[in-house]
Design goal:
Elements (H helix, E strand, L loop, with lengths): L1 H10 L3 H15 L16 H12 L5 E7 L5 E8 L3 E7 L7 H14 L4 H10 E6 L4 H5 L21 H13 L3 E7 L5 E2 L8 E4 L11 H20 L4 E3 L9 H7 L3 E7 L9 H20 L16 E2 L2 E13 L2 E10 L2 E3 L6 E3 L2 E6 L5 E7 L4 E4 L1 E2 L7 H5 L3 H6 L2 E5 L15 E3 L18 E5 L2 E7 L2 E4 L12 E2 L1
Parallel strand pairs: 3-4, 3-5, 5-9, 7-8, 11-16, 18-19, 19-20, 20-24
Antiparallel strand pairs: 1-2, 2-4, 6-10, 7-9, 11-12, 12-15, 13-14, 17-21, 21-22, 22-23
Helix pairs in contact: 2-10, 4-10, 5-10, 8-10
Bound molecules: zinc ion.
């Protein structure tokens, strides 16, 4: 520990970061003590957070108020803690399928409920009153969809205020006249930090409050907090921070709340390699938001240079789940070289509690300006059609008994089945299942199709792509979460 502190003293170039560097790394390192274990997947619903809110309601440390209801009648709860003069307001999940910060809020509440970090918490709670409004769009969360039950984007309803969720957000903001606002969202995992292969794991914006994009003290303070949070994230996710375009959107909440005098910080949780349920990103939310709260309480952000905000790379959207480069493709007697950009697209089961994949080719051609979470250099490989296994099988059990390594190595990507369980939506195997009369169309690569084919070199099939997932046939592990059913 001692040598770490010494290293921090000598290495830190920024005094503000130095003051909080220690607490930040302690927050990161002790995170598991506060993580709310009951909400560990993205598809969380209002009923999942009600027991947590009940516990908090029974806890003297917190004040809980029902501040509104959604169109569907679900409660909107405001949880407050602290007695300081500066009001900090955090709201999450106004888009129903953006739950990462909702989870982080309950981690932060566990932190405040604990007996640890006594000195830091006293400083925070004496100087700040912190208000949390988690899951502003519970109806959208129920369906794991962006919009609310009126079918509108709440984030375009800040002026017209047609939705009760929007009215609640405006009323709470006004009643608190909050000094700082954290507008908490998720963004597509396909965003990257501009001209790099790094995903934008977190993106920030200090929204503009006018078309001129002026910087007054309110917006300037938001920029300073963002610079502070970016410095923290660079330590845990180097290069994985993006900055949103700050064009003024007159209908959006962030832009208006900035205009109404609350220093507004938009945080968008994006993608992180091999973090499908975004639990590492949740931890980064926890660490950086709590650190920001601490710096607001200590007012140590004030000396940060606003100019550093512009140095954060801009957000771009140039990532695919799988990028294959330089593959040879035969079409009408000629051979062409193609890159393929493939996304593993989630489709919800009817209960919206979990999902399966229906992958698609998003783009093809020269994709040299794009990146992939996973990339394969397929130079010298030829794309081959996936074949149908010659024997028709009669049950899932028979399919299960197949040796999939062998089947894939022989270039079979489809297995014909005489009957299917009625409600079965997809294939749990690393091969597609087809009905008795289904004809597999000839492979015709084009954006929109399901990516299923093989890559062959010198007559040997070395890779399979099944439902957009790459399988290295020299290895025994097959990571294809599901395939499709074509009846
Ligand atoms: Zn959003």
């Amino acid at each position: 520990m001692k040598h770490l502190l010494l290293a921090a003293l000598f290495l830190c170039s920024c005094s503000v970061i130095c003051q909080t560097d220690n607490i930040t790394s302690q927050l990161y390192d002790t995170y598991e003590n506060y993580k709310e274990g009951s909400i560990g997947k993205r598809r969380i619903k209002r009923a999942d957070i009600q027991p947590l809110i009940d516990n908090i309601t029974a806890n003297d440390k917190f004040k809980v108020q029902t501040v509104g209801k959604s169109i569907g009648g679900k409660k909107l709860s405001l949880i407050s803690i602290g007695s300081g003069e500066t009001n900090v307001f955090l709201w999450s999940q106004m888009h129903g399928d953006e739950p990462t910060a909702t989870q982080a809020i309950f981690d932060i509440l566990n932190f405040f409920d604990s007996a640890d970090f006594k000195k830091e918490k006293e400083a925070i709670l004496a100087n700040l009153t912190i208000h949390f409004l988690p899951m502003l769009n519970p109806d959208g969360a129920e369906l794991f969809q962006r919009r609310n039950l009126l079918g509108i984007d709440i984030n375009r309803d800040a002026l017209r205020l047609q939705s009760p969720e929007s009215k609640t957000l405006k009323r709470v903001r006004d009643s608190l006249n909050a000094d700082f606002g954290f507008n908490l969202h998720d963004q597509s995992t396909y965003y990257n930090a501009e001209r790099t292969e790094k995903p934008a794991t977190i993106s920030y914006l200090a929204p503009a409050y006018n078309y001129e994009k002026d910087i007054n003290e309110t917006r300037g303070n938001a920029m300073k907090i963002i610079v502070f949070m970016n410095d923290i994230l660079q330590k845990y996710a180097p290069g994985q921070v993006g900055r949103y375009n700050d064009d003024f959107e007159p209908r959006a909440f962030g832009d208006n709340i900035q205009k109404w005098g609350t220093s507004t910080i938009l945080i968008e949780s994006g993608g992180y390699p091999n973090d499908i349920e975004k639990q590492e990103i949740r931890k980064l939310n926890y660490t950086s938001i709590l650190s920001a709260i601490y710096t607001i309480a200590k007012k140590s952000y004030e000396t940060i240079a606003i100019e550093k905000y512009e140095e954060i790379p801009e957000n771009d959207r140039k990532l695919f789940d799988l990028k294959i480069t330089g593959a040879s493709y035969n079409l009408m007697g000629n051979t062409y070289v193609l890159d393929l950009g493939i996304n593993q697209i989630e489709v919800d089961y009817p209960d919206h509690n979990s999902f399966w994949y229906s992958s698609r080719i998003l783009d093809q051609g020269d994709l040299s300006t794009y990146y992939g979470y996973e990339t394969l250099d397929a130079t010298g490989y030829t794309i081959k059609q996936a074949k149908v296994y010659p024997r028709t099988l009669n049950s899932f059990e028979e399919v299960k008994a197949l040796n999939f390594n062998d089947i894939l190595k022989q270039g079979f990507g489809y297995v014909r089945l005489s009957t299917f369980p009625a409600k079965r939506i997809n294939s749990p195997f690393p091969v597609h299942l087809i009905g008795a009369k289904y004809n597999v169309p000839e492979l015709n690569l084009s954006p929109g199709i399901n990516p299923t084919f093989f890559l062959e070199k010198n007559g040997v099939t070395e890779y399979a792509v099944i439902n957009g997932f790459l399988v290295n046939l020299k290895k025994t592990d097959i990571n294809v979460p599901n395939s499709m059913i074509f009846r």
